[in-house]
Design brief:
Elements: H1 8-28, H2 48-51, H3 56-66, H4 74-96, H5 103-115, H6 117-124, H7 128-155
């Protein structure tokens, strides 16, 4: 999967693998992935939408699916899907506008931390700003991992033509 144009079948297979990988990472780290303080390591995989833009929707779907495990209901599932779309979409735009891969860090660090508390504050009965601060702490590590993942894979030529 180096710098190339992938056919539809390969994109579908890679998408399914990425959803499964997201869910696997989430399940392994579920003790720190839910609640008012969370470090969802699986969000580091959002960064791959920089290299493979077709992953914007599958990774967003994976986040929505992951929120079914958290037990907070349909609002959390839909919110997770939307937060995933905003984050992965922003990461795709970072590449599209030829910005540095370091901007991927900001997308993964900031977008989920400011978007998820919109619905989580009501569901968890925790003030919005307190959730933002907690999620900023929790998003730092996934953002860093995602950024290094993109930088390393880019060096090795892994990237879909757009």
């Amino acid at each position: 999967m180096t710098h190339t144009k992938l056919n539809t079948t390969r994109k579908l297979v890679i998408s399914a693998i990425m959803i499964a990988l997201y869910m696997t990472v989430l399940l392994i780290s579920q003790s720190i992935s839910f609640g008012s303080y969370q470090m969802r390591l699986a969000t580091a995989l959002y960064s791959l939408s920089y290299l493979y833009p077709f992953l914007v929707l599958p990774l967003s779907l994976a986040n929505g699916l992951a929120n079914t495990i958290g037990g907070l209901g349909l609002l959390d599932v839909i919110g997770g899907l939307c937060a995933g779309l905003l984050t992965t979409g922003a990461i795709y735009l970072i590449r599209r506008f030829k910005l540095s891969a370091w901007f991927v860090f900001l997308a993964i660090f900031l977008i989920p931390a400011f978007i998820a508390p919109i619905w989580l504050s009501g569901l968890l009965d925790v003030p919005y700003l307190a959730l933002v601060l907690n999620l900023l702490v929790g998003q730092f590590v996934p953002a860093l991992i995602g950024t290094f993942l993109v930088k390393e894979l880019s060096k090795r030529g892994y990237k879909e033509d757009i």
